[in-house]
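ERR on first pass: missing label on line 2. Operator R.T. fixed the label and resubmitted. Corrected input:
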Amino acid sequence: MIRIRGLALRVGGRTLLSELNFSIKAGELVAIVGPNGVGKTTLLRALCGLHREFSGEIAIQAQIIELYSPTQRSRAIAYVASDETMLEMLTVRDIVASGRFAYHRWFDWRETTHDGDVIAAALGAVSMLDFSDRLFATLSSGERQRIWLALGLAQDAPILLLDEPTSHLDVRVAHDILLLLRRQRDLGKTVVCVLHDINEALEFADRILILGGGTLLAACEAAEVVPSGALERAYGITMEAVHTSNGSVRVFPRSSV
Amino acid sequence: MTIRFAGALAVLLASLVLSVMVGASALSFHDTIFALGHPNVPSDAATIVWLLRLPRACLAAVVGAALGVSGAMLQGMLRNPLVDPYLTGVSAGAAAAIAIAVAAGVAAAFVPALGFAAGLLAAIIVATLSRRGSGLDANRLILAGVSLSALFSAIVALVLTRLQQGGYAETIISWLAGSLAGRGWHDLQWVAPYLVAGVGLAILVVPALNVLRLGDVRAAALGVNVDRAQWLIVASASLLTASAVALSGIVGFVGLIVPHIARRIVGSDTRLVLPFSALIGAAFMALADAASRSLFAPVEIPIGVLLACIGVPAFLYLYFRENRWRPA
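pass 2 clean. output:
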């Protein structure tokens, strides 16, 4: 689904990440973790063609990213950004309806019944159908994140990329969002998300990509993360692993005192 | 929505009829309608309506519509409600060129065309300065527009101070204050192709403009070619504004305020905001022109001055009164 070969990412001439090689299979839920500023967001943006300062190869569905037109790309990959924009006077439905842009020619302004169905399904998938006519500005952070996810779903793309979908959310709302992502994975989507909370990644991801020191340190399943030692190398601290009652692993920084 | 469209259209038609009725010699409603319906029956009313007032009312409407659409597009693209169509330097560039031309004794017939060309040239300079990569940078566009406009205004001021003795200063000031006096169909004729091109480009970018409401990054992710959309929007807005300036001189306020009124009525969907801005801007300018001709007839007040004196307080009252009922 996604294949990366010898990828080096630069920002303003400075190399941020290099020698990246990995593949993501269709129907996988992959988490990207790593310290602040390591290049997680840049990598995500490169995967959907929004960051063009790179060398190496990014192939999406066996076609390199540069060959996609903007609308083709948006029908293949939905990118759910984390940055906040001022959105006065926009209703929830206005926002989600924007996901259908790539399915229309320039002269074709009207929303089709199919568009309407997809928009309703997207809002339904995040349990926000009743909020259609609400002004976006009046929603809570958790509700907003659901709307951004619904916008991604309205693109009807097989790949979902999410940048920190759970940041600034309380533990329950974050959990709900991650359950929604897992459901999308179960419905056949390929889901890649940047996560700040390693424990969210350990619990929900099929595979975890750990970035650190300017490259990819490990790409492995949750159970292999702690033995690999990649987390400690990525963050430069010692960590302690704890096993929960259901047998999964959680990690915490070990106090040096 | 159909009702609101019909309403706006009715307001525009009523404004046009009213604009045709009033003036130095007022016509009755009956005479006006009769003359409009029978262009070939010779009468004083028919002459006044068809040769003097209707062309002028239509011109006013076209100017208002062009400024309304242009303002709505730029405000939408820059996501900045304080932006007006003159942001791209069109008006200041036109004013400087017109001031120099009048001072140099260029024939009056060439002045509108010169203003049009100089306005577009100023917009091109501003757009070139605000390039970043293959696209435009919103902050650079605003900064380049504001600073270049200041430079052009200084040129106008310089010309005016050197001209105090001659009678030219009056011609220049009437351009700066905006006026439709003495304009007719032939003025509309030569501007028409540029207006059509501007509207065509606007129609081309409406869907993209709608998605740009979510911000440039999200719009790009949703499949908008952001760079191309920005260039098209600036090109369209500049063509429309330069045409308006060539027709009426510099009429402030309309391009800033009309999009706000349109959004109040139809929300922020660009597919509705652009046509409504056109209709409201047209009605607004037709009424303003009628008032400028008739309030102190036979003396004409410059339309820009009138708009500012009546329009600004009215708008502030309406806008802030309504704001009290909306959550911050």
